[in-house]
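Thread: Newbie trying to understand structure tokens

Hi all, I'm a second-year student working on a class project, and my supervisor (Dr. K.) asked me to get a predicted structure for one chain before our next meeting. I've only ever worked with sequences, so writing a 3D structure as a token string is new to me. If someone could post the tokens and maybe explain what I'm looking at, I'd be very grateful. Here's the chain:
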Amino acid sequence: MPAKNKKIIIATSLEDASILRKFTILFIIASIIPMGLVEYIYLLNKNGQHLDLSNTAFSYAMFFMILGVFVGFFAMRSLLTQVIAITKTNRKSLERFLSPEAIKELNKGENEIVVLSRSFSAVTKQLEDNIHSLETAKKTLQSVMAKVGEGISNMEKIDTFLELILETMTNALNGEISTLMLLNDKKTDLIINTVYGTNYDHQNPIRIKLFQGSPFTKVIEEKRPSTVSGIFLQNINNPKLNTFLGETLLCVPLIYHDRVSGIITLNKTSNGGFSEDDITLTSNLACQTAVALENSKLNNDIEKTYFETISALALAVDAKDKYSRGHLDRVAEYVTLIGKTLGLDETDLNTLTDAARLHDLGKLGIPDEILKKEDALTDEEWIIMHRHPEIGESIIKPVRSLSHLCDPIRHHHEKLDGTGYPDHLKSEEISPLTRILAVADVFDALTTERPYRGKKSTQEAAQIMRTMKNHLDQDIVEVFLESLKTASYSKNFD
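---
Reply by user tm_fold:
Sure, no problem. This is what the structure looks like when written as tokens:
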């Protein structure tokens, strides 16, 4: 190997060597000449010779000793300069990650080595904090996924997911209270639909009137996020809003196909303002929420159309038979009367009304010669007729939003003693709503003309229904008959 290449390799090796190795080499270089000079003087004295200061060898020795000291000094100084440079670089890097208080604590070091040591300690602590944050984030993610899974398995309406979105956003951004407000059809009001972080009475939703100069109006018109102050609340005549909106608020529009459907707000007063990352994350969530709301609306429209279609089919079946024409509307009216008398909530009342309008839908699958037959049905024909509750259930079962109607439609011909059809349910196996529908259905059948008998009066029907203890729930029968004593009904059926 050429000598030049050897020199390059040696220089490179020394440059890449550790500080400890460099220090060792430089220490040897700086101390070997003085030690050699001392050894030379010692040997002269041992041999009985006197040191001649004018001796050329001694002069050279002194020269190299002084040179070695200077070389050692500047080399050691170079090493220390590198250490100081490393400390400064490390400090500048740490300033991007550590708080001002932590940086101030580092600068209290007596020297660069102490500062470097403290820097390493600070880095270690920061790494530990980061690991802890990652573990916390992992647990939070697992919790969110569990809630999403629970929401998917139990979701009947989109409100479940709207609550989950607000909860996830609020916790992720260390917020306090978040709201989701939807525009009304006329685009004049915002209605608070969902709230996370405080109690909210969904039965009495809060409406916020949009006016010129309102920050909400600005967000909707400009279609971009905005951070606003709670001062504007003084112009809104609703003190309750202070609970939901606070003093510093991030407002993000819900935009789908360039159309604003509402606003998501986040209150973060105790944690300062909102960063660009906060706004970006909230905007992304708002976009996804707008899509979900639009999909839900379209799905509801489709299901509403489907319901209206099958309702029309049910009415068409009702109209086929001159004897039962109007039966569905009357039964719907009766079940509503019973439900209101019993004090049922709006959900159960709607279920009863819809089930009444669709309970004979299965007659679509029954041949016209049986439906329109004016004589009494034969045993074989009754077997076919008894299939209509199952057929009706099979028609509405594929529609998720109508699944709550399956039970009353399938079981409205069940009897308390188990002799009904199609499943021969007994007593408590028959749901309360289905029992109500059965009472209304029987009453209308008794009080309308049939090919095999004439219609009964209200009093006659009441007497017959009171004897049907093995068939009808007598408590519901009495509630119904009592409610019929009102003027509007007694005039129609007496």
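A couple of things are worth pointing out once you decode it. The domain at 321-493 is CATH 1.10.3210.10 (Hypothetical protein af1432). The longest strand covers residues 248-256. Feel free to ask follow-ups in this thread.
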